């Protein structure tokens, strides 16, 4: 597999965590990224079929304007609060003919990992290369 060099600066907390995993931070970082990639793929598979098309569209619309901070995404409560706020401010759920209460009940059933990956996928949908128009149908198909 081809590899590409990536350089980044980690804050002290992340650097210390990496040091607990391996004497070489590069090795620890690669391990974490490989594990995250596998977890992301499996979690998207777990989420498939949990939401209707209308609910996925509502979630996509809710992330068009604002996104919670990455550090706070590891809880379904942030996702629920964000979804409620987006409905109140932008009618993201009702404009997609989805039922807010049913959607909230489904979001309450998510594990912290599922909530985090779902929010990351929604964030990524809107934050790709500006020349790459996101394919809504392709995105919806991953979850419905």
Helical percent range? 55-70%
**Main beta sheet strand tally, sense and closure:** none
The helix/strand order is HHHHHHH
Q: How much of the polypeptide forms β-strand, as a percent range? A: under 5%
**What structural category arises from helix and sheet content?**
mainly alpha
Count every helix, treating DSSP H or I runs of 4 or more residues as helices. 7
Mean pLDDT: 92
Description:
The chain is mainly alpha-helical. The protein folds into two domains: 12-47; 53-143, no CATH class. The chain contains seven helices and no strands. It has helices spanning 12-21, 25-47, 53-65, 76-90, 100-108, 112-126, 136-143. Helix 2 (25-47) crosses helix 6, helix 3 crosses helix 6 (112-126) and helix 4 runs antiparallel to helix 5 (100-108). The longest helix has 23 residues, at 25-47. It starts with 11 loop residues before the first helix and ends with a helix. The relative contact order is 0.15.
Key features of this structure:
65% helix, 144 residues, elongated, mainly alpha
Would you summarize the structure shown here?
The chain is mainly alpha-helical. The chain contains seven helices and no strands.
